[in-house]
């Protein structure tokens, strides 16, 4: 179903119903300018918003490919990416309430959808990574990044199997000192100054740069190390969130 409306001195508006509660409006305004607006009624229980990605954080694909992968009716691009390098998004990503990637600081603005009964509630808000690495002596280190394309200066990044295949040598952001530890079932299974790539199932990787690398010195294979991370802020954990940059409106 669709309709076309002409507004004098404004332009032509063509509206199409894509699904219950979901409409697409194409607006041709002032000559060659064109605006496309996707409007969702979040009170419609049959609409199920989801976070799209190619399967791993560092993989890339067109928006159409990602939408077709899950049978989405419509999709909107979001976030900023490490184009030409890891391909990973820079901001926060949350899917089905699970934090997929994001930094503790920087690129924290998100468009988020929270559960609201059988429907959803939308918000533009800020969400941050809250992550710690607990060493054998009980010292808790603050991690600055989760599956990020760059680790903050003198920071510590956490990477899990959702990261993908890209070599983590690309996330050092010019740091000359790096130390990486792999942890399986709460025990360190590998220590290296050369970052790896794909993370095995059941394994989490902690990668420090600069003074972050120094903080991991002395960790040995067999040591007990615990990694915890969760989203913080936004007034609760959203069902879906995707990052962006400055809020324009």
Q: Can you describe what's shown?
A:
This protein is mainly beta. The protein folds into two domains: 1-41; 50-249, no CATH class. The protein is built from two helices and 17 strands. The protein has helices at residues 63-70, 211-215; strands spanning 2-7, 11-19, 22-29, 33-40, 93-95, 98-103, 109-116, 119-126, 128-134, 140-143, 145-146, 156-159, 178-184, 187-192, 203-209, 226-232, 240-243. The strands form three sheets. It has a ten-stranded mixed sheet with strand order 8-7-17-5-6-11-12-15-13-14. It has a four-stranded antiparallel sheet with strand order 1-2-3-4, with no helix packed on it. The protein starts with a strand and ends in a 6-residue tail after the last strand. The model has no long low-confidence stretch (mean pLDDT 92).
